[in-house]
Structure formats: C-alpha cells, structure tokens
Amino acid sequence: MTVELRDLEHIYPSGDIALAGVTLTLEGTDPVAIIGQNGAGKTTLVKHFNGILRPTSGSVLIDGVDVTSHTTAEWSRTVGYIFQNPDDQLFLESVRKEFGFGPKHIGMDSDVIEQRIGTVAELVGLSHKLDTHPFDLTPTEKKFCAIGAVLMMDPSVVIFDEPTCGQDRKGTARLSHIISSLRESGKLCVIISHDMKFVTMNCPRIVVLCHGTVLLDGPADEVFAQPDILRRSFITPPPITRVGQGAGLKETVFSVPAFINAIATERNARG
C-alpha cells in the first residue's frame, strides 16, 4: 500500500494555511510517526488520506488512485482513521454492535464478521466486554473499542491519532502489540503522537511537521540526532536519548539497555 502526497495544500475557510505544499510518500509496513507541535498540520494531513478533508491544491494518491475520486465511506475499506476522542466515533448500544456496524455496511459476509469479532476483540482486550455499552467502558477500554471498530473493516492503512492519550502502562503496551500485529499482517500504521518514548519504540520512520511543511523525514535515530532542528517544532527527544546526547554518545539511543550497550561499545573501541 502506497500513500503519495503531491504538493498538498490545505487552506481553511478562515484563511489559515494548514498545509503548505507537502510532498511525501508512505509505503510498506513499517509504522510511521507524524510528530510536531500543536497546529503543525498533523491531523489535517492525515485526514486527507481518506477524504475527510479535500485538498485546496495538490493531490493525494492511494496506490495511484486519487482520493477525490471516491467518497470517504468508500475509502474506509482501505484507510481506517481512529479518532483521538473515542466519543466522536462510538454511537451504538454494545461493543459487539460497534464492531459489526462497518463490516455489515460494506457487505462483509456474516460468518466472516463473527470470526473477525472474536479475533479483533481478543487483540484489543475486549473479549469479555462485547455485550457492554461503550459508554459503560473505562476511558482506556473506549479507546480500544474505537480501535477495534476500525480494525473490523480490515483496512490496509490504519491511522492512530494520539493513541496513548489517557493510557496507562498496560494500555500503552497493548497499543504496541496491536501495531506490531498489524505490521506482521501487512498493514501500514501511521501514528500521530506527542509521546516521543512511544514513537521511538514503535516507529522506524519519523516525519516532523512544522507550520504545515515537512521539517525532517527519516529513520528515528537520524531524526532524533538533530535536536537543534527538532526545537523548531518544539519536539524534545525522549529523556534517555537526551542523556545519551549529553554524555556525548555517537549512537542515538532510545532505551536504557541501548544506552548501556552504547557506552560499553565506545569504551571497547577506545581500548
């Protein structure tokens, strides 16, 4: 699956320029993080992937097909968007009905739907809550209900908008497992987040937006090795990364074990 943006511009009716000529290609199955300060254009950007927003100029192509050639409902089979606030997405009387709604409306076979409900519910940790009203779920469970409802559609691209917001450690670990599972099944995950620890642990590629333009784009270790540029979009590397940079390590590290290993490697190299 390939998402290609060509000179994408978006100007809101107020005259505010949200995107100022973004050219970008996302493809393969490696999760991609889109980061930047509030107002950088992150959510505006990804809402073009399935036609929730339409370009002022430029184009968005999904496997070579212009997004404007189909409706958002039609693109939902290919590009799934998980809203930051699950209350914006959930509206039915049970988790089971939320999971079944989308697939039924695209004509998915009922036996396939039932099989997928079991698989998806287990993945998102709601197997025991299928007959619960979504509004009776905890905030964390609501988030996973919204994720499950999108995954039921079996999209090729899954967009997570601030998935760790309000999550505890257990929930964050489950999110990482979900992203890993989607990657293994050939899906492309696009993650908008201010949680740099989560981003570096899950996303090999980082795209940094600043005032509607791409400031940096590349492997995580290369992007976070440029703190001076990151400051322009008010991005701070994870704490352990900053410690390593302060210690003068040549390697960009994202975990304590990696930090210890880098120190040992540089000591051995000095003999």
From TrEMBL:
Annotated ranges, domain ABC transporter: 3-236
Keyword Acetylation: no
Pfam families reported for this sequence: ABC_tran
InterPro entries documented for this protein: AAA+_ATPase (IPR003593), ABC_transporter-like_ATP-bd (IPR003439), ABC_transpr_CbiO/EcfA_su (IPR015856), ECF_ABC_transporter_ATP-bd (IPR050095), P-loop_NTPase (IPR027417)
An example Gene Ontology CC term for this record: ATP-binding cassette (ABC) transporter complex
Record-linked CDD domains: ABC_cobalt_CbiO_domain1
Top-level taxon of origin: Bacteria
PANTHER family associated with the record: HEAVY METAL TRANSPORTER (PTHR43553)
Name the record gives this protein: ABC transporter
Protein's organism: Bifidobacterium cebidarum
Lineage: Bacteria, Bacillati, Actinomycetota, Actinomycetes, Bifidobacteriales
